[in-house]
## 1
Amino acid sequence: MIVQGNDAPGLAPGLYIVAGPIGNLGDLSPRAARILREADVIACEDTRVTAKLLRAAGSDRPMLAYHEHSRAEVGEGLLERMASRSVALVSDAGTPLVSDPGHELVRAARQRGIPVTTAPGPCAAIAALSISGLPSDRFLFAGFLPARAVARDKAIAALAALPFTLIFYESGPRLGATLAALATALGPREAAVARELTKLHEELVTGTLTDLASRYGSSPPRGEIVLLVGPPEAEVATADALDQALEAALRTMAPGKAAASVAAALGLPRGEVYARALDLKNTNPESGDPR
Ligand code: SAM
């Protein structure tokens, strides 16, 4: 079946959510660059930052500042434009709407029946997760924790029991205090600090929350940071046990049967086990082909 994509020449009217690089201009996709060259107007956070991106994309399209403080005032004008022209939204870095403006605009566009199209690409949270080695089958992106200690600790307490890898954005000066608060509330869970991803000084440091809190407590790192915290220990053990049992079962059984047998043995929900069985089967299609 051939499905019509969004690559016809010229841009149809509507809103285009365009992901840009998180530090390395080489990560701007050809499709994103094309949208930036062809859109009638580019809505962006900081016109100085986006001017560099547009130069790299070979675009001379006009920019309009759409940020925290201009959202209400500029939003309505953008929505009116989108009805008959193409508007691209970019952030200073990565994917718009991820700890960045855009949610209200997309929502309002949808409510008015204006087409909204994605040009997906880099996102610091996903880039960090992909190299962290922490469980990636289920994760929760929690953005920036509140700056004030009481609100921050309350936010951490609300996340403590979740059986997912947690992903936070954080700044260098606050990293030590955040790690200490996380270590106090969650104990010595596995964690990772991903810094300056895709840039010259890219670095990933792993360890327990306690180790990392002491490493960064007195020497705040420079640059941009993603902080990841593994799920509670029991979850890691369960996930490992599940994969081992499924891999063994898939050698002799079809995914449905393997999932039923493993779900019963480990006392886990059958639907979740079946989904994992399919993942494993897809990542390793060689693992037998039982009929
Ligand atoms: N929309 C962006 C995205 O898709 O990742 C995030 C915008 S948010 C305002 C900026 C935060 O993302 C930074 O403070 C930092 O925590 C994280 N970040 C952005 N670029 C990064 C990079 N290259 N390496 C590590 N963290 C990064």
Note: Strands lie at 14-18, 41-44, 63-65, 86-89, 116-119, 139-144, 165-171, 190-195, 203-208, 224-229.
## 2
Amino acid sequence: MPRVKVTRTLHFSAAHRLFREDWSDERNQEVFGACANPWWHGHNYEIEVTVEGEIDPETGYVLDLKVLKELVQARVIADLDHRNLNREVSWLDGRNPTTENLVVAVWERLEDHLPDGVALDRIVLRETPRNFVEYTGGGG
Ligand code: NI
């Protein structure tokens, strides 16, 4: 059967601050600029989750997109939406909540939770309409 990639986009809003505790305020300001503001700031994130697999000959689906939506909603969005990413999300503890670190953490939340025969292919995380990151797995 043909193998096809299917994508679901979801949305969440969250607050964060980019900084390192082991750096001075000056150094944090120099590297992270306005994102180091100690009083937080927010983003309206868009996340695109792409999975890949064979088309099921019975249903014509790779995966019912409702199933994918509910999985991302339960394992990712429910924890992140309207939260402070530095303080309120246990699976982000110890990670500076850059878009890069966030996309890898989201991957880890999803990769072992897909139905049999369906694999995570790519996650795109948009922090603003102009800034986004992409992760396809792998690396240290
Ligand atoms: Ni930011």
Note: Residues 65-80 form the longest helix (16 residues).
